Amino acid sequence: MVESRVLRFAGHAYFRQRLVLATLAGRPVRIDRIRPDDEEPGIRDFEAGFLRLLEKVTNGSTVEISYTGTSVYYRPGVVAGGAVTHDCGTSRGIGYFFEWLVVLAPFARNEFVLTLKGITSIPGDPGVDTLRTVTLPHLALFMPLEQVSMLASSLELRVVKRGAAPGGGGEIFFRAPLVAALRPLDFVDAGRIRKIRGIASAVRVSPQMSNRMIDAARSVLNRYIPDLYLFSDVYRGDESGRSPGYALSLVATSTTGAMHSAEQVSQPGTAPEDIGLAAARLLLDAIQRGGCVDRSHQPMVLTLMALGPEDVARCRMGPLSPNAVQCLRDIRDTLGVVFKLKSVPDSEDVLVSCVGAGFRGLRKVT
Do 89 and 102 have their domain in common? Predict the structure, then answer.
């Protein structure tokens, strides 16, 4: 019976997703055939770092890694939370570690007080500006903050230091309140885009770099909407990390609170104007896809819907990404929650609904 509870997966894809779902379900998981045919088989240093971070925020977890590193066995413990500091290294950005760990925050025994150090903006991982302006509002959709006492901390993410690739040196601070239970989501009206905001960050380069990104993005977005504000955020000295770099993060918000985001990060030989133009075009593409949830946040929202109370949760989404489709399968295997998908007439959107599993946090209601 114990062996039948073990979740079994293969491959390195969706590594974090499966570990977090197994932690929430309280079921051990075994992941085999991790890059068996690669020149360097087995897990990478950032995947090992994510395992170490999971051990820090839980109590009683055990991890067994095979000699070749191609097999991982993880037995989760209780989500303890508390004050945790973790160095994310320089292989991946802080967003790689944060975007799935944030799902555990409402179910911790103690309030999450998390400090992550590493690269704040890197291609391929969400930057800290996107985490703060898009990821946290998506999490807040499920948190009944009106039930939290006035003495409890608010949901916040603060950028202490910025750090560009490859040297890093950035740091963020995250705090999340405890809740007794999530609230069911009913988000089916995407509304119309009413404003666009953006942050152009620059570290260890001329402040003109951020202004050039803003001017390039404005040349595209001004033709779309008048309510457009792009801010320049330049860090100097000890707060600017170890490497030069610049990035642009954009967020479009609708009349009903739906958010769509886009981000571009500098690479060697890339002009600031190219960053601004690419980010603006990516944002317009995200808006065109429609839905109430940003495409990159579909798996997170689906997971929180499945963890909600035993009530119907509904959300309108644009075309589901491959990550979201796989997340639906993993949720079914780990939590036993099955989603109903219904196409929305005259659009490519999908109405996603489910009955939550009824997960409850460890905060006591008085």
Answer: yes
